């Protein structure tokens, strides 16, 4: 299984108040991930290119007897960035320290962490793009020269005391690589971009997690869960746990396609992975606004959610699935959205406002 992060509660949530198809972690995810997380690169499923490239980087570093180059991992939540950071530490036989960008708001916070690192230690910095600017500037020198300047005193009497650091490996993770300033991005010796998973890879993830959780599941049951997992191993594992619960209560504990489909229907996750929030956005767009275009604020009011929730939680997956499009005039539904909800798009009025060539042909 792959790593997890946190997210606010929305429609389509499970009993803990978290979206079942959210790509970030809740408390239960954190509790079970240690048992499901692969410990070696050979056990890690998917991300073939990143895995092969990273394997060369680590093997070369071990052959030289040196610390590995700094590594930057980018990609959506739930694809394996935290897991890979722990694998890097394991492969290098080094300890790992985990922190995050939002936790480092002052240069002194970073200096305290860096000054306590051991030689060869791996420092995993999640959401590195959210680190404060003063800490970011201190990190430049630490990454390149293994040195930081600690400022003592204030005003004209302040002095900079250079502090030498032992060689270490920084593993930075970000969901928004474009927000990283070039000077920071250029200091990473290896950059890997994590892609969404295909159905076959997710089936392997489900089978592996089912073995570790002692859940009996057949090929069709795993395929049903994989097909609704939005290309994300974290979601696949979360859905597997909910299907397991349903199978234990409603059946004999074994999971097949019928049991998986029935369980996910209870949790309002449809055959494309859309949950209640996603469908409420589509239904409002189609039924209230004729498919759009409609402004984001208006759409948010129609579904009773904050603007940021619709834009950052629901829209990315709907756009990736080709069900919704962002245009200068507002949000519009695609023909696939009408088909998915079983609705017929309105006939375009010649010369009237509408969706341009979206339904042409």
What does this structure look like?
This protein has helices at about 25-35, 50-65, 80-90, 105-115, 135-145, 180-185, 200-210, 220-225, 235-250, 255-265, 275-290, 295-305, 305-320, 335-340, and strands spanning about 70-75, 95-100, 120-125, 145-150, 160-165, 170-175, 190-195, 325, 330-335. The chain is α/β, with parallel strands linked by helices. The relative contact order is 0.12. It starts with about 25 loop residues before the first helix and ends in a 21-residue tail after the last helix. The strands form three sheets. Strands 2-3-6-1-7 form a five-stranded parallel beta sheet, covered by helices on one side. Strands 4-5 form a two-stranded antiparallel sheet.
Low-confidence stretches: 1-17, 349-361
Q: In angstroms, what is the radius of gyration? A: 23 Å
Strand proportion, as a percent range, falls in 5-15%
Oligomeric state of the chains? single chain
Biggest sheet: strands side by side, in what order?
Answer: 2-3-6-1-7
CATH class of the largest domain: Alpha Beta
**Tally of separate domains:** 3
* Biggest β-sheet strands, sense, barrel: 5 strands, parallel
Structural class comes to alpha/beta
Task: Tell me the series of helices and strands, N- to C-terminal.
Answer: HHEHEHEHEEEHEHHHHHHHEEH
CATH H-level homologous superfamily name of the largest domain: P-loop containing nucleotide triphosphate hydrolases
What is the distance, rounded to the nearest whole angstrom, between the alpha carbons of the first and last residues?
43 Å
Q: How many helical elements?
A: 14
């Amino acid at each position: 299984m792959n790593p997890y992060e946190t997210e606010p509660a929305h429609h389509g949530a499970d009993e803990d108040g978290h979206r079942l198809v959210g790509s970030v972690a809740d408390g239960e995810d954190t509790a079970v991930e240690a048992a499901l997380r692969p410990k070696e690169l050979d056990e890690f499923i998917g991300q073939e290119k990143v895995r092969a490239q990273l394997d060369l980087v680590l093997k070369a570093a071990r052959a030289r007897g040196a610390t590995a180059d700094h590594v930057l991992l980018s990609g959506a939540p739930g694809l394996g960035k935290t897991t890979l950071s722990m694998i890097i530490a394991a492969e290098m036989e080094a300890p790992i320290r985990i922190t995050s960008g939002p936790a480092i708001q002052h240069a002194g916070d970073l200096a305290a962490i860096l000054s306590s690192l051991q030689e060869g230690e791996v420092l995993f910095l999640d959401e590195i793009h959210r680190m404060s600017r003063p800490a970011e500037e201190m990190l430049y020198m630490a990454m390149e020269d293994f040195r930081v300047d600690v400022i003592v005193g204030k005003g004209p009497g302040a002095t900079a005391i250079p502090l030498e650091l032992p060689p270490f490996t920084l593993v930075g993770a970000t969901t928004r690589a474009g927000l990283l300033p070039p000077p920071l991005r250029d200091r990473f010796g290896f950059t890997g971009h994590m892609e969404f998973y295909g159905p076959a890879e997710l089936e392997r993830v489900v089978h592996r997690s089912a073995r570790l959780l002692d859940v009996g599941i057949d090929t069709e049951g795993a395929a049903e869960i994989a097909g609704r997992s939005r290309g994300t191993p974290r979601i696949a594992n979360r859905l597997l746990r909910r299907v397991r619960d349903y199978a234990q209560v409603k059946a004999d504990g074994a999971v097949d396609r019928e049991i998986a489909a029935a369980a996910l229907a209870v949790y309002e996750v449809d055959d494309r992975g859309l949950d209640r929030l996603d469908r409420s956005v589509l239904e409002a767009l189609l039924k209230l606004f004729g498919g759009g275009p409609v402004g984001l604020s208006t759409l948010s009011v129609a579904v009773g959610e904050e603007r940021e929730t619709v834009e950052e939680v629901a829209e990315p997956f709907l756009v990736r699935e080709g069900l919704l499009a962002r245009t200068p005039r507002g949000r519009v539904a695609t023909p696939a959205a009408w088909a998915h909800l079983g609705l017929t798009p309105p006939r375009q009025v010649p010369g009237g406002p509408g969706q341009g060539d979206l339904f042409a042909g």
